[in-house]
Design goal:
Two copies of one chain form a homodimer. The first copy, chain A, is α/β, with parallel strands linked by helices. Helices cover about 40% and strands about 20% of the residues of chain A. Chain A has helices at about 25-30, 40-50, 60-70, 85-95, 145-150, 165-180, 190-195, 200-210, 215-225, 230-235, 275-290, 295-310, 320-325; strands at about 5-10, 15-20, 35-40, 55-60, 75-80, 100-105, 115-120, 125-130, 150-160, 185-190, 210-215, 240-245, 250-255, 260-265.
Chain lengths: ~325, ~325
């Protein structure tokens, strides 16, 4: 197998975030499930936007955030995702390319506008996401470039891709190409509600289709329909799939066959916004993984990247993660 | 004179900021004057955008930032400025209205896109601005609503309005209406380079046309073509115009006739981005002024608002300035 040109190829929904701080009452009055991601149609998104406070805009999208984190660590990255040729689409494309990431998915020339995620951040730093998928629904298998997947050590896919119908085919195509080329496939379960929507398919992917799975406590418990994190770990033990499980302020747990590594949390003095914490954990972990670091070090890199993102608004690093990793002796 | 419906009506360029952190070398390689604002045409703006790093987007514009700060303090505010009906225009309009600000300037239905300011923030927290005026060039006197000006205690104008040609007429119309209704007119000189472009006209405005002038050290020295801040103060003493002069980490100085008030600086532990500091100073000052507070208290409110903005990225408050003012005994 030739050396890979990219460490990681990410495939995901290409979304511009609109972040606004909100009181808890704003969520409860509207029945919004705190910490979750719900899908909105164009009209509902417009209404929620009218009602919410002033925001800041920043490129987002789960896998895209991970790719941005990987690039910030000095990793070689590629991304596949669909925006429309509109102002937000240009912003998204700029922000990915400006990191040195290979991103050549053609923009949609017509149809729905670039996707937006209205993110309400409550005083406890929790984020509640409301997504209008827009142009993401036009991502399809034709957007997956065979040689790009073959040339990537890991193809990283987000569970959210199950929401726009054609993206699932893109996902399956990429998985097949990657495995055909002897490469690894990683999956993030994305969201507990998302897991609930697609539990059977996700279960099959976790148990057989993928090599690495990322999930937080709620997601992995939702997948196995267990109350208790330890029960989920028990279910994962001995499987071929490597599982990196995040537990917020409790750190993370990496399950590799019969090994279970407990990774201490990174301390965050003043958490401001947890948006993208899981995405950055995956970035740090995959950076280590593609360099052959041992699993505790991969987990520590993940925790480090997640801590950086929690300390400010927005889901992409504001400082060089590579410099940060160097100061901590992790890179 | 009836009670005013609005404390302040702001008229300014309606701009969406694109903020990116940059090394100093990026500026020097391109001959960009650090700390200044330069105008770019559409092509030059696109080229600079291609070259700069990933950014975050936030509504900006000097007078609009001031209005946002005033609203955050609980002031009653109105704004006049021109965006196009495009994605960035919708964002700008949303962000102003979401603060409870009266903003009814019709969007441009055609022509250039909503204005953008590419803001490069260097490690010293200094910002260098590169503005594509876009739809701002279509702001004209027809956008100034007579009753809105008559109903505002202060009409606040930014010097940057001298750049798009028709806006100057809007400026002059508003000034005439305000004075005709016995209201006050405030002007910010905006930028030392801007003062250089329009020195004679600005001089006339400062000496006769306006009641309150805001300027930083570089701007007021540029206006009077003096090397020394004290010389500028000497020139302003005894004049009818109230001058609020900001001096960065040295605080501010308020000159009112023969009185000179030196206002101590507000301490900022970790300055991150000075974008909008002058705008927020004006917001705090005008909040106090329209409530009849004494001038040192107006200046302290200005310093407080500026300190908040410097501590994070972006030119609009992230916390309630009213709550902040209350904790400091200023509101």
């Amino acid at each position: 197998m030739p050396n890979a040109k990219y460490d990681v190829l990410g495939i995901g929904n290409a979304i511009v975030d609109v972040l606004a701080s909100t009181e808890d009452s704003f969520l409860t009055e509207r029945g919004l499930a705190k910490g979750g991601m719900q899908l909105l149609d164009a009209e509902a998104a417009e209404q929620l936007y009218r009602e919410m406070g002033p925001g800041i805009e920043a490129s987002g999208g789960s896998a895209a955030n991970t790719i941005a984190g990987l690039a910030s660590l000095g990793g070689r990255a590629s991304f596949v995702g669909k925006v429309k040729r509109d102002q937000l689409g240009e912003i998204f494309q700029h922000d990915v390319r400006a990191l040195g990431v290979h991103f050549e998915t053609p923009m949609a020339e017509g149809g729905p506008s670039t996707a937006r995620c209205l993110i309400l951040v409550t005083p406890d730093a929790q984020r509640t996401m409301n997504t209008y998928l827009g142009a993401c629904v036009t991502l399809g298998p034709e957007d997956v470039v065979t040689t790009d997947v073959q040339n990537s050590e890991v193809t990283y896919l987000e569970g959210y891709l199950w929401d726009p119908p054609a993206a699932k085919e893109a996902f399956r195509k990429a998985m097949k190409i990657a495995h055909g080329a002897g490469r690894k496939v990683a999956l993030t379960l994305s969201d507990a509600f998302c897991v609930g929507r697609y539990r059977d398919e996700f279960m099959e992917l976790v148990e057989k289709g993928t090599d690495i799975v990322f999930a937080n406590e709620a997601e992995i418990c939702s997948l196995y329909q267990v109350e208790n994190f330890d029960d989920a770990v028990t279910r994962l033990r001995g499987k071929a799939t490597l599982a990196a499980l995040t537990r917020s302020e409790k750190g993370s747990v990496v399950v590799a066959g019969d090994e279970v590594h407990v990774i201490a949390p990174e301390k965050v003095d003043r958490p401001l916004d947890t948006t993208g914490a899981g995405d950055q954990y995956a970035a740090g972990f995959l950076y280590g993984y593609t360099r052959g670091f041992d699993l505790p070090r991969c987990g520590a890199l993940g925790g480090m990247a997640a801590a950086e993102i929690i300390s400010h608004y927005g889901a992409r690093p504001e400082t060089s993660l590579l410099e940060l990793a160097k100061t901590k002796g992790l890179a």
